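Contributing new records

If you add data, match the layout below exactly. Sequence lines come first and carry their own label; structure lines follow with theirs. Keep one chain per record. Anything else will be rejected by the validation script.
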Amino acid sequence: MRPATPSALSSPAGGARAFEPSLLRANRLFESCDLDDTRERISRVMQPHHLQPLGRTGGGRSHMDFVRLGGIGLGTIDFGEAMRVDVDHIEDYHLLMFCLRGQAQATAAGRPVQADQTNGMICAPGTRFLADLSPDCEQFVVRLDRRMVEAHAGRAIQFSETLDLRRPELQAWLDQLRVLVTSPTLMQAALRSPLIAVEMERLLVHLLLDGQGWSDASPAPEPASTRLGLAPACVRRAETFMQAHAEDPLRLADIARAAEVPARTLLDAFRRFRDCSPMQYLRDMRLDVAHRRLSDPDAQTTVAVVAMDCGFTHLGRFAQSYRERFGQAPSVTLQQRS
């Protein structure tokens, strides 16, 4: 269980750095002055829900910006007037919400939550989402498919309901989210390449797990005594699968499925027999692929292209991992062979 003790960042306003998803503005899903049309259009990418204008209705102009990236949905929603949003139960995804402007009085898992620019909420699959939005409220929503989260985490996850964007532990996640929704080149690379999309999923999920309170909601694992005899076989099956698919988009659940064991069993087996996780083992395999490509380049080979093709979305981290493994920078390998 990760701790969830809040601590404000030091800033002139005492809050989180402004979050403006400029890239989403170029991905407007719709604009409408009709409430039924708004409800229908949002339901297509989220789920059926109830909308109730609060106070005097002025037929506000609503809009939604939305991008789908693998198992992640990113969007903004503005109703143009005070609105109650009521979702009977969140379907098969985790819903994260905070406000770009305005505020919301919300309920998550039966607990009251004040959502604004520094505080938000996470609603678990199967729970009710209820929020009263101020007339100037624009929501930022993140949809994380449950199966996708479990595929990367190797277990069922129950996040803490309150999302404090001022917490230092959450800044790496928030910074990566900010880069994704403001960088056209990164977004296009992730939309173009399933491998990069999966790696972006993995990075955002693990940064969220590292910074947000959560608990393990999966059943207890089998006793170790019943698994020891199977561990070497499942590790070998996983290694064979990863070697054959090192350049494909893979999640932990894909590897566990090929190894014919639950993800948690595979994690335990790799830690015992390889002293690393399956995803760390896969990362080293992909570094080996990158090394081979940089060692035998063609006229179009660049370090950035090889890194992206091998699933490394951050060039600096790729260069650091490459240097740790091979004792030289990737650019040196390329220059030696060019």
